Every structure is written in structure tokens, then in C-alpha cells.
Amino acid sequence: MRGLLCENDRAAGHNRRHFDLHQTLAINLMSSPGAGKTALLEASIEALSATFRIAVIVGDLETDNDARRIRAKGVPVVQITTGSACHLDAAMVHDAWHQLRNEPVDLLFIENVGNLVCPASFALGQHADVILLSVPEGDDKPAKYPVMFRCADLMLITKIDLLPYLADFVPERAQRYMNEIGNPAPTLATSSRDGTGMDEWFGWLRRLHAAQGHPAEVAT
Amino acid sequence: MHELSISRALLDQLAGLVRQHNATGVSAITLCIGPLSGIEPALLRAAYMQSRKQTVAEHADLIILPAAVRVLCQECAAVSEATPARLTCAACACSRTRLLSGDEMLLESVDLEFGA
Ligand SMILES: Nc1nc2c(ncn2[C@@H]2O[C@H](COP(=O)(O)OP(=O)(O)OP(=O)(O)O)[C@@H](O)[C@H]2O)c(=O)[nH]1
Ligand SMILES: [Zn+2]
Ligand SMILES: [Zn+2]
Ligand SMILES: [Zn+2]
Fold first, then answer.
1. ipTM of this predicted complex?
2. Of A124, A165, B77, B100, which is most buried by a Cβ count within 10 Å?
């Protein structure tokens, strides 16, 4: 018996060796369209680029809007235009990585295509999966998209500044749905707008980076 | 629809198997697809029908076996049937469970054809 995606899994393993060899922590960001992945990256780059060398691989169906927004923050970006594909795969990330390789990278963010179904099946070689659930989407998404939410190492409840206007969303309920799909991953509530929870998110990244034996700071 | 990518990956594997065994084609394929694999069997079948033209599997029957969702409780060690949206232990209700089956996307068997 062979996995249907064993070829992709093999390519993902190869990517992982690249990342480990270069002491790069690779984070896969997933969410439905518009949950705030790019806004999160903009805020994270602003806060962290003094400490970490950051690069971004971004998957976008049609436009280069996300890539331009991130490039404006002064970090290297490779855009993968996926055309009709609804997810990134390991081979696409491999190509993108080799386009980046001139510069050493401590933190590599992979902004996956906005989609709560397809990206879950394709390993990329990432060290951690972060899933964003924005307040306007409703708190029952983990129950509706268990395949995706089950693999998350961290759930960010984004746009938490909108909570006062959307009383239907109960963060504890989102957490409970995560428990019901057997995922013990922690949850953080964040807002790229007013900065709520961002320090906790940065702390999570720093701990993960340190735990993988990477040097915590760039020599200056 | 990522089922199209998965169907292509399947056809690549089949072509490899045919080459490896000096076969002339494929007569039947059996897959095992669990509800937590992220693959919709009906969509995979449609994608496969669409992409198999002029491949070694052009006339192959596609059989898709389902898989049950079962979890092992890390607290009380009970094994229970579960559903994709509720993977908690049926015995003690705790959520510290490990998935035993349900996320399969496997190529179970392939029947190869030899000769014209
Ligand atoms: N109120 C509020 N709005 C936000 C926040 N973060 C993002 N937005 C808004 O939500 C919209 C989508 O944000 P993006 O960062 O582009 O979302 P995305 O997930 O990158 O979108 P796609 O790449 O298209 O999937 C934009 O209008 C943002 O200004 C937030 O924390 N609070
Ligand atoms: Zn390589
Ligand atoms: Zn899809
Ligand atoms: Zn139990």
C-alpha cells in the first residue's frame, strides 16, 4: 500500500532538509480567504525583522497584491502564482526556496492559498502549521473543516478587535470545537489592527525557534 | 479542487508501476480513502475519469473503499468509533485521543494487464 501523495511527501521531506540545513524555521499559514494572513505577516515583519532574518513565500491565485504588500516591508518575497490550483504543494515551495536562497533566513513564512479544504492534504516541509480563524467567519469552523483544523499546531483567532460587534463569536466555543476534533493546540486571540495578542504570537514564534536549536538572535 | 492534483499523482504512480513490471496497462485500481483525508471520493472519481484519457489506466475500474474513523483514548485506552467533527473518546469523553484510522489516502491494490 502506498500513499497517493507519497511523491509530494518525499518532496516535503527534501524541503525540510533544506530548511534544517540552513537553520530556517518554516511556518505554514493557512486560513479561509481574507482571514488576515497578509496583515499578520506585515505586523510580524515590522516587529520581528530587527531580531530575525525573515523571508516569505506567498501563494496567490491571480494577483501579486500580497507579495507587494510584504515586499513593501523590506523582506524577500517569492510569489507562487497557483493559477487554478487551490493549494501549494512541496514542489512549488522547493522552486520558491531556491529562488530565495542567496540570503540566510531564520524565519520562513509560507502564506498558503486562502482555502480551508485543499491545503491540508499537501505537506510542504514546514515545521509548524498555524491556522487563522477570523472573528467574522464564526466560531464553528473547526467542526466544519476538521481535516484542516486537526493538523494545526496553533490557532490564531484573528480580527479580535471585531468581537464587540459580532457577539455570535465565542472564542471559548472555537476552542471547544478544537478539543472535540482532538487537537490540543493552543489558541491565541490577535488583532493586526490594534495589536492585541501580538506579543503572545511573537513569543510563540520565539519559543519555537529557540526549541529547534536555532540561534535566538542575528549577530549584528 | 485538489482532487485533480491527487488524481494526477495517482496516474503518475500507475504509469511507474506499469513501466516497472513491463505491463501493458491497468485493469483495476483499489483505493482506500478515509473521511479525514480531505479527499471527497465523488470528486476524486470525477477528476480521475477526466484525467485518465490516453493513460495506462484509460479503461481501469476504480474502486474506492471507505475507512472508519477510530480513535484511541490517551486517558482510558478505549478504542472508539468517532466522526470527523467529533474525535473525542466515547468511553470517557476526553479529547486526548489519537487517530487510529480515518485519514487514509492509500493505493491498496492495482491489477496490471499484460499482452495485447
Ligand atoms: N478589523 C480587522 N481587520 C483586519 C485585521 N487583519 C486583517 N484585516 C482586514 O481583513 C482584510 C483581509 O486581510 P488580509 O490580510 O489581506 O487577509 P489574507 O488572509 O491575507 O487574504 P487572502 O490572501 O486573500 O486569503 C483586509 O481588509 C484587512 O485590512 C484585523 O486584525 N482586524
Ligand atoms: Zn532541493
Ligand atoms: Zn480544491
Ligand atoms: Zn477515554
1. 0.86
2. A124
